[in-house]
Structure formats: structure tokens, C-alpha cells
From TrEMBL:
Region forming the signal peptide: 1-22
Species, as recorded: Candidatus Segetimicrobium genomatis
InterPro entries reported in the protein's UniProt record: Cellulose_Degrad_GH3, GH, Glyco_hydro_3_AS, Glyco_hydro_3_C_sf, Glyco_hydro_3_N, Glyco_hydro_3_N_sf
Top-level taxonomic group: Bacteria
Protein name: beta-glucosidase
Length: 400
């Protein structure tokens, strides 16, 4: 009997030791996120996946959602005064005090305007593109923006497509170099820094390959063309450390990107080892119904979440329609938790739990906005972007 008790005691001791060692090897970030997840209700978890929009200032109804822990972030809220107000509500008046992601389309400058990305690409100067993105990050971060929906890295070969100006053109190599440079410029060496913003490579994938140059149109390409032409800039952005990816509106071979598990999970997260966050484009989850792949809002939300899309931009489907689906057992709680974990990891990476305002103040916003050195850089990049077309041999049929 004494020997049996000794053996049991040894087993218990070994178990406690293993658990202690496992805990010791768990990072502080993981422990923090684990603690938050353990305390969150299902609605609060889905709230972290809810990305809403408004113009200039938050409304009382939106701030009430923040107080209830039902918003993970906002887009189109800018200015240190307005962003600090929203962040204060999140970290001082909500139950779990989780800060907000605050996103904005910082495409070619924030207050200081740089040449469009297509023109920047014509410089063939990735250092200039990186410097321009850094200036944009400095000004945006000072105004409270901590997340940019840029760079757009779509390869486009049809000039009829209306968004060709936002990317780097038709060449996968140049597009890849510029994508990596812009990611480094936006994020810097340390996302905790007050002059860094989280970058988003968009639109994943092949958005620029829309048939006939018609926006939102279908894309019908082989996997080889996808990998050789449209995906390289995204891979370059991922390798450069991009913190987030935005899915595209289009279908690829009949399946919308926002519901494409092979694209978002198998390829992006599995093959490429992407560990960041994936966000939908504007209402693209709800648009799965228009594509004909979902018969209801709830079904659209289930398809997107299971494909690997973490944040729902504007549709409010995750927040409003998925609680019942999860409780009915049609979506595992573990799937929700994985998405929430990635959103929280982005907030930790930005240092928002240490400084939810990310260094944004009215004074800093004034000091950085349109700073002389920023305007001088914009002029230099603009000069580099000028392209002189010479038709000395009359190769192009132009009247000169």
C-alpha cells in the first residue's frame, strides 16, 4: 500500500512539473490572450470580429456597442480627438477593456499626398516607396489610425479596370518588390512604435484579373496563372511581415474569395505559414448571397468564418447572425476562438494593451501633418515618377 501511494505521488508530482514547465514556456502574449478568451462571452468573442464604419466621429449607438464589448474595430474614424474618444470608451468603460483596431485607407499618403502607387512603381525605386509609406504611417498613427488597408498589391493587365491606379501595374516581380517595400514602410521594425501602423495586403486574390476590366467581375484563371502572375506580390507581402490580408470581392473559378477555404486557409495559412489576421472587404461576406453560394446571412457568415476570414467588415453578420449558429453546433467554438485569437494578437503586436492610443495626440498630429520634410519627400518621389515617352523610331503610332 505504501509503495502504491508513493507511485501515485510521483505521478502527480511529474504531472504538476510538466504543467509548470508548459506554463513557463507559454509566452506572456499567449497567456494574456488565453485569459481574455476564458472570460469572454460568445457575443464578446464575435464582437471582436465585428468591424464597423462611420464618418469622422462615432455615434452614441456605436459607442454603446463598444461599451458592451461588441466591436473589435472601426474604419474611417480619423483625427486624434475622435480616435482617442473611441479608444477611451473601449479601455475605460467596457467590461474587458480591450482596445480597438482603427483602420483607414492610407493608400498614397495620409495628409501629405504622394503619387498614386502606379506612379510610385514607375520609379523602380523600392526605397522611395518604403519612405513614402513610412511618412504615411507617421501621419496616420499620430491621428490615431493604427491599421491601414494598404498596400494594394493586385496585378492588373487590363487598363479598363478602374482600380489599376492603386497597384503597381502588370509585372509580378516589380509588384512583389513594391509590396514588400510598402509593408516595411508602414510597419517599420517594431509595430509597438508610435510611427507604425499594421499593413494589409489586398485584395486576396486576383482582383485585378476581373474579366473585361469590370470591377467585382469573375476571374477565371488556372492555378498556374494564379501562382505565377497574381499571387507573388501577396507572398512577398507575407514574407515581409504584413500583419493582415484582405480578401477580394471576385470569384475565382466560380468561388468567391471570401468563402474560399483553399485560398485563405490551405494556401495562405498552411503553405505560406501566414500567422496574421484576415479581414473581409466592405460587406463582402453579405455579398456571398449575391454570388449564389449562400442562401442566408447566417450561411454567408458560416462560410466566411470557416474559410478563415477573421473580421467582418461592415456586414455585422458575425455579430448579429452567428451566435445562434454557434449555439446550434453548426460552427465549433474553437473556430470562433481561433479567429478572435488572431485579432487579439494583432492588437498585442501593436502594443495597444500597453498604450491603446498608440502615441496619438492632438499635438503630435499637428506636428507631423504636412511636415516640411514630408512634403519635400513627396516632391522628390513625384519627380522620380515622371515617365518621358520617347517615340524616336515611331514604334508607337502617335502623332508627334
Amino acid at each position: 500500500m505504501q509503495l502504491r501511494n508513493t507511485v501515485i505521488a510521483l505521478i502527480i508530482a511529474v504531472g504538476h512539473s510538466a504543467a509548470a514547465q508548459a506554463g513557463a514556456h507559454t509566452s506572456p502574449t499567449t497567456r494574456k490572450i488565453d485569459s481574455l478568451l476564458a472570460r469572454m462571452t460568445l457575443e464578446e468573442k464575435l464582437g471582436q470580429l465585428n468591424l464597423l464604419s462611420f464618418d469622422d466621429r462615432s455615434t452614441p449607438a456605436q459607442l454603446d456597442l463598444v461599451r458592451r464589448g461588441l466591436v473589435g474595430g472601426f474604419l474611417n474614424l480619423t483625427g486624434a480627438t475622435a480616435t482617442r474618444e473611441a479608444q477611451h470608451v473601449a479601455v475605460a468603460e467596457s467590461r474587458l477593456r480591450i482596445p480597438l483596431l482603427l483602420g483607414y485607407d492610407v493608400i498614397h499618403g495620409y495628409r501629405t499626398t504622394f503619387p498614386i502607387p502606379l506612379a510610385e512603381a514607375s520609379t523602380w525605386d523600392p526605397a522611395a516607396a518604403q519612405a513614402a509609406a513610412h511618412v504615411a504611417a507617421v501621419e496616420a498613427a499620430a491621428a490615431g489610425v493604427n491599421w491601414t488597408f494598404a498596400p494594394m498589391v493586385d496585378i492588373a493587365r487590363d487598363p479598363r479596370w478602374g482600380r489599376i491606379a492603386e497597384g503597381s501595374g502588370e509585372d509580378p516581380y516589380l509588384g512583389s518588390v513594391m509590396a514588400a517595400a510598402r509593408v516595411r514602410g508602414f510597419q517599420g521594425a517594431d509595430l509597438h512604435a508610435a510611427d507604425a501602423v499594421l499593413a494589409t495586403a489586398k485584395h486576396f486574390a486576383a482582383y485585378g484579373g476581373a474579366e473585361g476590366g469590370r470591377d467585382y467581375n469573375t476571374v477565371d484563371v488556372s492555378e498556374r496563372t494564379l501562382r505565377e502572375t497574381y499571387l507573388p506580390p501577396f507572398r512577398a507581402a507575407v514574407d515581409a511581415g504584413a500583419g493582415s490580408i484582405m480578401t477580394s470581392f471576385n470569384e475565382i473559378a466560380g468561388l468567391p474569395s471570401t468563402a474560399n477555404r483553399w485560398l485563405v486557409t490551405t494556401l495562405l495559412r498552411g503553405e505560406w505559414k501566414f500567422r496574421g489576421m484576415v479581414v473581409s472587404d466592405w460587406t463582402s461576406i453579405d455579398e456571398l448571397r449575391a454570388h449564389g453560394v449562400a442562401g442566408s446571412r447566417a450561411e454567408a457568415g458560416r462560410l466566411a468564418l470557416e474559410a478563415g476570414v477573421d473580421m467582418d467588415m461592415v456586414s455585422r453578420i458575425y455579430l448579429d447572425d452567428l451566435p445562434a449558429v454557434v449555439r446550434a453546433g453548426r460552427i465549433p467554438v474553437a473556430t470562433v476562438d481561433a479567429a478572435v485569437r488572431r485579432v487579439l494578437q494583432a492588437k498585442v503586436a501593436l502594443g495597444l494593451f500597453d498604450d491603446p492610443y498608440h502615441g496619438a495626440t492632438v499635438e503630435r498630429e499637428r506636428a507631423t501633418s504636412l511636415a516640411p520634410q514630408h512634403r519635400e519627400l513627396a516632391r522628390r518621389v513625384a519627380r522620380e515618377a515622371i515617365v518621358l515617352l520617347k517615340n524616336d523610331t515611331n514604334l508607337i503610332p502617335l502623332d508627334t
